[in-house]
Write a structure and sequence with these properties.
CATH superfamily of the largest domain: NAD(P)-binding Rossmann-like Domain
Subcellular location: Cytoplasm
Shape: globular
Strand content: 15-25%
Radius of gyration: 21 Å
Subunit structure: Homodimer.
Keywords: Cytoplasm, DNA-binding, NAD, Repressor, Transcription, Transcription regulation
GO molecular function, one term: DNA binding
Family: Belongs to the transcriptional regulatory Rex family.
Length: 235
Amino acid sequence: MENTVTALEPSPEATTGDNEPATKQIPPAAVARMTLYLRALNSLLAEGVERVSSEALAEASGVSSSTLRKDLSYVGSYGTRGVGYEVQYLSRHIAAALGLTHDWKVAIVGAGNLGKALARYGGFESRGFDVVAIFDADPMVIGNEVGWLRVSDSAELERVLERTHTNMVVLALPATVAQAVCDRVIAAGIRSILSFAPVLLQVPPHVNLRKVDMATELQILAYHAQRAQTPGQAV
């Protein structure tokens, strides 16, 4: 089942009794594109740009203008004909629609090469994600420092998740242990999981699971590369 994201819809006619905007759902494909718009808007903010046209924002995001306008209708139409979009205002509302204004505390389970690389990545904090813990079961790894974090014993997973108020978990684990650890994470109350494990995990309907399979993506890339090299084949 595909997940959807609830977005703010600032229509004056559709508000709650507390004057809060009503909500509508964003299709999964549009959610993915929203992240592109937000990245482009943040780049414009860094350059001091105050307004941007739909054509310029669409080009910076790699989509068509019609797709951009349709997607932005899910968070309300903030553009002005002939003037464009106010960059800071639109960025703020897209971030709110994606849930990036919440306090997201992330734990990484698995302190191998991938887990350590993720823990050291500086881009999470600027996007609203605070990596608060990293775990491993290897006695030779437990206690080592990864960036500013110290690797915790996975035997203490539940206790540390509670202490750090973690609400998102990244699984950077081998396939053989991924499901068992996933079950523990869910039992500890985590409802949002990103898995790099090369296995299909089973989770309850109330848990949001996203899977990143780099081998699969490389296979798809190889397919398109092969077709591009074959005369008469369209990519």
